[in-house]
Design brief:
This is non-reducing end alpha-L-arabinofuranosidase. Homohexamer; trimer of dimers. It holds the Pfam family Alpha-L-AF_C. Its EC number is 3.2.1.55. One of its GO terms (biological process) is L-arabinose metabolic process. With 502 residues, this protein is an alpha/beta fold. The chain has 2 domains: 367 residues, Glycosidases (TIM Barrel, Alpha-Beta Barrel), CATH 3.20.20.80; 113 residues, Immunoglobulin-like (Sandwich). Helix content is 26%, strand content 25%. The protein has an 8-stranded parallel beta barrel with strand order 3-4-7-8-9-10-11-12, surrounded by 6 helices. Strands 2-15-19-20-26-22-23 form a 7-stranded antiparallel sheet, with helices on one face. β13 and β14 form a beta hairpin. α3 runs parallel beside α5 and α5 packs parallel to α6. It is globular and about 70 Å long. The structure holds alpha-L-arabinofuranose.
Length: 502
């Protein structure tokens, strides 16, 4: 197959916000306990954090990290997780049918974030709690005042405020699985009131209101309209969440998941802008795509879910998906979709970070390793700088059951005006065919060096596992050539690639 691409610095979509490369740590399964925190591990630091995991988190290149949930947050009492450890209660976590020991809470997590160099994005509980709880945790986290919660933080050994800028107003409040889920009207009222109250403490906070928990929800669209109509002036972002998996073995549609993500983002943008017009507002709402990934959710629902009334394990193995080469290609294509909407999606979180549907896996007392999905994320985070560029693409199509005809190739480019560096991110969705791609770079003037990296494997189901942690890795794509103002590259079937020009 052949495909042609033209890239041009004049076709700028918008600046790439570093927050696009965020992730998510929920108190869920072994994400926190036996994931980032394992005090008995050989690599643990003085606070019990695994330094091998910290090294991988830094290498992954994650900006903002959403915490502490997720579904977990809708039953969470933040104050359980601060102060002397011996006084912290063990609690039922209804979201994941587990026991929460509260060994890790806000202060410890903030300290871990400092070590890995990421920013905290904090979700408040609007499921079983509300305005007062949000105000209390905001005071505890951010203020220097001589008042009860701020003093408590100082007494707990954290004299400096955590200065959390981004706050999520609850989590997936449209979902019947969510503790305290509600109608759009009910949620809009509590979210708007909470936002307004939080701004009475600090008007400069960046607040994220919950959008639908997925575009498949029956209330999708209407939820966004109602919630934004009632909260528009109080919030900065609306959230999007999307997870993808092959349904009934339909790999062609799975590889085209970014088509769904594109449509989802564009629908939410349209709805937000419709509300903007209705309100004659000058303000534009941004999107926080604060949960996205490949997730074999059917496996959790059908196999792993704990329901027994007497069984509430600590840090059970939940949602520990093992990711294949094909899954990584889909993750790479979802990053292309996010970059394509960089003008409106200015924050995003790969859900999640460690062990739970994660790019990083750990074994208690044992090694940590990179899943296949680690690579497109870390390379995109490292290379996508400056402006995202709209590309002109001429690609053959293939038929999918879900989306109809879909381009075999998908692509986006980025251009760092400061350094002159250009990157092109590419996927070949064909299950069987190589693609010979030619890229017209004439709009860029002088380009000296050209190189390419590709993630692909003759076995698209190959994965990195405890037994074989380095089975899959990206490799240099030696087919890349430049002749004058044309770059050519061969894209293997089911592959993700990054081409850099500089
Ligand atoms: O990331 C796993 C779960 O997916 C989150 O807790 C929830 O918000 C979503 O449904």
């Amino acid at each position: 197959l052949h495909s042609r691409l033209t890239i041009d610095p004049a076709a700028a979509i918008g600046p790439i916000d570093r927050r696009l490369f965020g992730s998510f740590v929920e108190h869920l399964g072994r994400c926190v306990y036996d994931g980032i925190y394992e005090p008995t591990h050989a690599t643990a630091d003085e606070e019990g954090f695994r330094t091998d995991v910290m090294d991988l988190v830094r290498e992954l290149g994650v900006s903002t990290i959403r915490y502490p949930g997720g579904n977990f947050v809708s039953g969470y009492r933040w104050e359980d997780g601060v102060g002397p450890r011996e006084d912290r209660p063990r609690r039922l976590d209804l979201a994941w049918h587990s026991t929460e020991t509260n060994e890790i809470g806000l202060d410890e997590f903030a300290s871990w974030l400092e070590k890995v160099g990421s920013e905290l994005m904090y979700a408040v509980n609007l499921g079983t709690r509300g305005i007062q709880d949000a105000l209390d945790v905001l005071e505890y986290a951010n203020l220097r005042t001589d008042t009860a919660f701020a003093r408590q933080r100082v007494a707990n050994g954290r004299p400096e405020p955590h200065d959390i800028r981004m706050w999520c107003l609850g989590n997936e409040m449209d979902g019947p699985w969510q503790l305290g889920y509600s109608t759009a009207e009910e949620y809009a009222r509590i979210a708007g009131q909470t936002a307004r109250a939080m701004r009475q403490i600090d008007p400069d906070l960046e607040l994220v209101v919950c959008g639908s928990s997925g575009a498949q929800m029956p209330t999708f669209g209407e939820w966004e309209r109602v919630v934004l109509e009632r909260t528009y002036d109080e919030v900065d972002y609306i959230s999007c969440h999307a997870y993808y998996e092959p349904i009934d073995g339909d790999l062609g549609s799975f590889l085209a998941s970014a088509v769904n993500m594109d449509g989802f983002i564009e629908s939410v943008v349209s709805t937000a802008d419709h509300v903007k017009a209705l309100r004659r507002s000058d303000k534009t709402i941004k999107i926080s795509f604060d949960e996205w990934n490949v997730w074999y959710q059917s496996r959790y629902n059908d196999v792993d879910k704990i329901t027994d009334v007497d069984t509430w394990p600590v840090a059970p193995r939940l949602l520990e998906d093992s990711y294949s080469v094909m899954d990584a290609v889909v993750v790479g294509s979802l990053l292309i979709s996010l970059l394509r909407h960089a003008d409106r999606v200015t924050s995003a979180s790969l859900a999640q970070l460690v062990n739970v549907i994660a790019p990083i896996m750990t074994e208690p007392g044992g090694p940590s390793w990179r899943q296949t999905t680690f690579f497109p994320f870390s390379l995109t985070s490292r290379l996508a700088r400056g402006q995202a560029l709209r590309v002109t693409l001429d690609s053959p199509t293939y038929d999918t059951a879900v989306f109809g005809a879909v381009p075999v190739v998908d692509a986006v480019a980025t251009h760092d005006e400061a350094t002159g560096d250009v990157s092109v991110f590419l996927v070949n969705r064909s299950l069987t065919e190589e693609v010979e791609l030619s890229v017209d770079i004439s709009a860029f003037g002088a380009i000296d060096a050209v190189s390419g990296t590709t993630l692909a494997d003759p076995d698209v189901h190959a994965a990195n596992t405890l037994a074989e942690p380095e089975r899959v890795a990206p490799a240099e794509n030696t087919s890349v050539r430049r002749e004058g103002s044309t770059v050519t590259i061969t894209l293997p079937p089911v592959s993700w690639s990054a081409v850099t020009l500089g």
